[in-house]
Amino acid sequence: MEAAAAAAAPRPRATGCLTASTAAPQRASRWCPRQPRAATSSSSSSSSSSSGGSPADLGLLPRRRVSPSSAGRIAGGAPPVRARDSRAECAGGRSSAEHIGVSLEGENRALEMSSTVPKSSNIFWHDCPVGKTDRQNLLKQKGCVVWITGLSGSGKSTLACTLGRELHTRGKLAYVLDGDNLRHGLNKDLGFAAEDRAENIRRVGEVAKLFADAGLVCIASFISPYRRDRESCRALLSDGSFIEVFLNMSLELCEARDPKGLYKLARAGKIKGFTGIDDPYEAPLNCEIEIKEVDGVCPSPSDMAAQVITYLEDKGFLHE
Ligand SMILES: Nc1ncnc2c1ncn2[C@@H]1O[C@H](COP(=O)(O)OS(=O)(=O)O)[C@@H](OP(=O)(O)O)[C@H]1O
Ligand SMILES: Nc1ncnc2c1ncn2[C@@H]1O[C@H](COP(=O)(O)OP(=O)(O)O)[C@@H](O)[C@H]1O
């Protein structure tokens, strides 16, 4: 198996890196300015990270207009094994343009073309009297996003459903957003080109943020192969409530499973741009939870779910 090269340095995380000893997440502050806010700031919650005003601060990252492979990412190998506590690596310092190897002029042009550039003006944020904290108190839990990423066949949907069932059994409200399912509806206009995947993940990030604001444990299960897109979703949730779960299963294991026969089709050249075969997967550098094979054996679905539940318990998401 070739080693996947995820050479490009990530952008610094806007929310800061959690450590294993981080206390329970702060209570999310409500969207509650008394004055209406202008449209350009309305897309982010009342987080301190929204103060910058630059396109990046506002989550207006340019959509990718270059082939991902040109950014030094390589398909065809399983993601490298990462130590759990590798979050200190999240200190890139380079701009997103440098990260993907395009000129600033190119970045600006891409920004103009981006679907995340606001197209309307004279719109104002409207606050409602019942806020996130009220909903969380009602539900006796805290809203968050459990973002499951990994190769096709790594077990994302299995973990998502097992976790969803376990939370339900415990009386906690959760909702699963699954890649295959959303591509039947909200995202049915999108394919698997890099810019389509980026738009897929951008939309899901926004939807997941709404679910978290509703007070739910939102379980998002997407290949989400590009680090930058996942980091953009993380940046939408500024209070440690974005929990990235990396299903670090080898390409060999995923390909041996191949429940839908897609790897076989990709190897036969009948599917182009298949993640892990001829499209890259960029392993997380700073995930909260990593689940991997031990001696070639994958933990059971209930063990995987238990690992996530323990994290949620420890961080206080399953309590008022
Ligand atoms: N080219 C290509 N590459 C990867 N996956 C492909 C492709 N074509 C179809 N599929 C099927 O689409 C599912 C992945 O959808 P996602 O929305 O999670 O993909 S992405 O996050 O936008 O990359 C994925 O589902 P999972 O196997 O559950 O991961 C596949 O069934
Ligand atoms: N922890 C596990 N142990 C054994 N088999 C698993 C495990 N998780 C998933 N599988 C199996 O692997 C295949 C792919 O799982 P799936 O959840 O569909 O992956 P993904 O959503 O990442 O494509 C399925 O046949 C599933 O039953």
TrEMBL record:
Pfam families: APS_kinase (PF01583)
InterPro entries associated with the record: APS, APS_kinase_dom, P-loop_NTPase
APS kinase domain: residues covered: 142-292
Pathway assigned to this chain's UniProt record: Sulfur metabolism; hydrogen sulfide biosynthesis; sulfite from sulfate: step 2/3
EC number per UniProt: 2.7.1.25
GO biological process, alphabetically ordered: cysteine biosynthetic process; hydrogen sulfide biosynthetic process; sulfate assimilation
Gene3D superfamilies reported for this sequence: P-loop containing nucleotide triphosphate hydrolases
Residue ranges, annotated region (Disordered): 1-94
Segments of skewed composition (Low complexity): 1-14, 41-54
GO cellular component: cytoplasm
Entry keyword set: Amino-acid biosynthesis, ATP-binding, Cysteine biosynthesis, Kinase, Nucleotide-binding, Transferase
GO molecular function: adenylylsulfate kinase activity; ATP binding
Record's catalysed reaction(s): adenosine 5'-phosphosulfate + ATP = 3'-phosphoadenylyl sulfate + ADP + H(+)
Function, as annotated: Catalyzes the synthesis of activated sulfate.
NCBIfam families: apsK, PRK03846.1
Family of the protein in this entry: Belongs to the APS kinase family.
Name this polypeptide is given: Adenylyl-sulfate kinase
Species assigned in the record: Triticum aestivum
